[in-house]
Design a protein that fits this description.
Distance between the termini: 29 Å
Structural class: alpha/beta
Number of helices: 10
Radius of gyration: 18 Å
Helix content: 25-40%
Shape: globular
């Protein structure tokens, strides 16, 4: 899909958490997409004063019937043809998954080449931080319909039911959708990476590991990668430039001692990152089958 065509659908529906302070969930994704030129319809799945990793936080989840009603309104919106993609992230409860799936179906019925990106936000190296029914709904209802899925390595491990200590095991665990795995095993000493596997190529973009990073990196990565793809960048370029942008913002935030990604200060990094990122072209698991 060419985002440069003025008559092409350009809007993105982003469905995730909303925090009053910080740059996680919808706050990260909406800022990135709008900065990169894409109108956004933002749907909050939960409202928080700040990321609960900072301290105890009040959690407001919309009643499920009201959430479903709002999503149904979007399905029949007269402007639905404006939508080029749906990006879902953190869910406030398991029941929201069905409403997300229904909206994705409505968008695709109107615009068949619209993309659905599922960021299955459920946990990290410390374990699940959503109730297990929510994680199951992400795995069983939303991941199977995704065009692009963006789990971190822990989330993929949980869905696969096995540890994934290296790229070979991550590749074996990847699902049929295009998979962008964040916090992937790196071939670089003291590094980390984003691993992309689609039906044609296996790519690893690596950079230096920064300890104790702020939250929101996965949300930002999913949004920036989607924007690159909607702008018709090839997957390899999209992966490298997305990784460079997120790493550059992370590194600058860390240098300032920030406890949240400082997107507003480093907005230029979203479109014109200067950070150096190593891109490796790996052996695709299906190469022998296609030969």
């Amino acid at each position: 899909m060419n985002a440069d065509k003025t008559d092409a659908p350009r809007a993105v529906i982003v469905i995730s958490s909303h925090v009053a302070r910080g740059s996680v969930g919808n706050r990260a994704a909406v800022f990135a997409l709008e900065t990169l030129g894409f109108p956004v319809w933002a749907v909050p799945t939960v409202i928080l004063p700040w990321h609960p990793g900072h301290s105890r936080a009040t959690r407001i989840v919309p009643p499920l019937d009201q959430f479903k009603a709002l999503m149904a309104d979007l399905e029949r919106a007269p402007w639905l043809g404006e939508v080029s993609a749906v990006l879902s992230g953190y869910l406030g409860e398991a029941g929201q998954a069905e409403a997300v799936a229904s909206l994705v179906a409505a968008v695709k019925a109107r615009t068949p080449d619209a993309l659905y990106v599922c960021d299955p936000v459920m946990g990290d190296s410390g374990g699940l931080y959503v109730p297990e029914p929510t994680a199951v709904a992400l795995r069983d209802r939303l991941m199977p319909i995704a065009d692009i899925a963006t789990p971190n390595r822990y989330e993929l491990e949980w869905m696969a039911g096995a540890p994934l200590p290296d790229i070979k095991s991550v590749t074996a665990a990847a699902l049929p959708a295009t998979m962008l795995v964040t916090s992937a095993p790196s071939m670089m000493a003291g590094g980390t990476g984003n691993f992309l596997l689609d039906d044609r190529q296996a790519l690893l973009a690596e950079h230096r590991l920064i300890e104790k990073p702020p939250n929101g990196l996965g949300d930002l990565t999913a949004a920036v990668y989607l924007a690159r793809i909607l702008s018709s960048q090839p997957a390899a370029k999209a992966l490298q430039s997305t990784t460079a942008a997120v790493y550059e913002i992370l590194a600058r935030t860390a240098k300032r001692g920030g406890d949240e990604l400082q997107l507003e200060t480093d907005a230029q990094s979203l479109s014109h990152p200067m950070a150096m990122v190593q891109l490796r072209h790996l052996l695709h698991p299906g190469r022998d089958k296609r030969a």
